[in-house]
């Protein structure tokens, strides 16, 4: 548990979009999928997921529909809309740019050695 | 598209809140079930798995709130929560709530009423198409050339107007066959309605093509209101023949409901062609020097013509007329203005604007008042606020709740105020201050007024809610909870103090200016008019209305005078042609020349006195004292040498002294040489505010006029006397239309503007006084309640009553004195503006000064009385035990 990293503000939405991009999922499934694709390195409070989901639905990036889960239970499934897919691409790109820049900035500089 | 969706979502979220919540709960439940499934698979029992899943998930309530805020329904829901909470809070302190709402309602009501009047009189043009482009020549001192021939010349020679029309008043007897009654009409040029571009409601209007010379168009167009009241909406009225001053006229149409002629203040009963005025009043359409020939001329400016160009154009015609007809026309600069208010325009505009400024001051004072009330309230609630902060509420939320409270108060106050103003304005629009004149206030409360009041209410709510903001932002929950309530009462000048001073200053301004106005009115009622209106009855009789030809007028008037003189108790009976001095602002001037002036063009006139034609006993009846020489006698008719009587001012201006004027000669415009037989005291002629003017009196027997007023001096009861007079005059001729009023009632017209101004300012002053009472009271009561414990200790230690009082109220009184002085000074400076409207409104009147000071002191005393009583009745033992 202790080696799990706290989420940076604003990154949850990106993770949700990424998780859902692989196919429709219900809330708990998204949580599992994020754990799986991040190698269980990220800590997400279970309930904190839902405000994010509702927000993305409101923004038109996700659409939700009720269905039956693999456990044969009623669950709300989320999938990407076209706008959501576009947003995911943009966000991924800008995240990569930011991460690259920060990595460069933090990398040991020649004069430090 | 997305905005619409999002909006729909929000609205749906708002209205189906329970449904959304249920769905949310189901989703969270499903989540926990799935988690429990996983846990169960790892070997736990189902019950244990579900318990663990729920614990892991945590309190779902927290997420509900977050989800609510994420989907956006939160603003409205939290606002509703705030509103409910605020309502509860307000209900808990009904005194505060009532005071706040009533204060604001009064201020909003005052503003809305003044705005309604301003909208009706100043902002809104006449109710005709394209009225913003409709300009007219102003009546007034510059009207000397507005005779009918000059109007025709202006119409021919000016190039700025699409077409010019003109109108004049016609005060006539209107006989439908059953009930002859006096009526007010507009005698208009044939093109009047066509220039105004209005269409008839019934029948037709008259047009320029109906005019074929003098008395050629005996037609009458009724206004809608007159058709309604006199003809009871009878469609058959059109086509009927009625009698106007005993001459047959045909009703040809009815004007549309919203159309009330071309004057805002006066709504006529009917319209008739100007050319037919001759048969009604002996009006001479060819008299170029007839200053009363036309009231106003107006028309639409041609497209592209500017106001300045039109003025130049009219000036050029002025100059042409003065050059061509030097005997009759005075060269004067004619003033054009948008049609409707005539020469009342500038003073009305100035007064209404001033009134609006005062109303705004009232609102500002009310805001300051409410601001300090809210600040005091916020201070009292600082413990509650501190607790809420400590329990995790955000400052934003607390402020929002404060604003919600303020907005609730301001909405309630605004609603109350606007309803009050609607009632008042409706009253005002049907108000008839003078029974004889169809004065009409064109005020109609409408949606614009409603929006104005609402915006004002909300803005002021916002303003006074701003006051305690800093207090809340600064609040340190730890300190406040530790220190307990109200322990601190700093010596420092707080916002609240400043607000109280501002508010008292504003109120003092209002009180002072209303006192100046009231004092001015009282002075004007008791100033020397040059006649004595008390114990005087007047009888206006227009013999033309009863069909008398001009040559029979003098004999009939003599019979009327003799008949009334024989009534027991009547001391003197006089008669003055047209109107007595100061009545209906109708005085006319004449050009008078020194004997040796040979070229009698107006520019050479020695003096231009107001001129009256009066009967022999007029001066005695009017109570005007004769300073030298003799009055008129019944021998001063056309066969006797012409004589005149002048006032003191005339004598001094022309001859240097009263005695020097006696028996000297002057020449009138028409060449008549008159000898000055007597000199009478000075008086007021056109208005109460005029500076001393010369006056000339001629014997009425030389220039008989059908329209005249009898002046009857008697100490009998006016009601009885009027009844007897009516009886006796009806015995002479049953068909005489008689206007019987006391002279004082008649003077109402002259005093009306200053009376209205005084009333308005009086109301403003009263509002100011009320506000200052509530303001000082709030301040004093608050400071006493805050310091009760301290006062108790002081008393226990042996402080005297004076010391306790000064400790409790010293600060309030100091603020009061400070504010009052500031307000008095501002008020006295401001009353200079009043001087133009209210007669003798001088700010340097010691009585006014003393009055204002005493008024403010009394208000202070009144407002601090209850708090002082409370401070004195403090029981130290009880208090100390309580804490």
* CATH architecture type of chain A: Orthogonal Bundle
Strand content of chain B: 5-15%
List the secondary-structure elements of chain A in sequence, H or E.
Answer: HEHHEEH
By CATH reckoning, the class of chain A would read Mainly Alpha
Question: Which assembly state applies to the chains in this document?
Answer: heterodimer
- Helix/strand-derived class of chain A? alpha+beta
Which segments of chain B are poorly predicted (pLDDT under 50) over 5 or more consecutive residues? Answer: 485-489
Number of strands of chain A: 3
**Total DSSP E strands of chain B:** 22
What spatial form of chain A do the alpha-carbon principal axes imply? elongated
Q: Average the pLDDT over all residues of chain B and give the rounded result.
A: 79
* Portion in helices of chain B: 40-55%
Poorly predicted runs of chain A are none
Which class best fits the helix and strand makeup of chain B?
Answer: alpha+beta
Name given to the CATH homologous superfamily of chain A: Winged helix-like DNA-binding domain superfamily/Winged helix DNA-binding domain
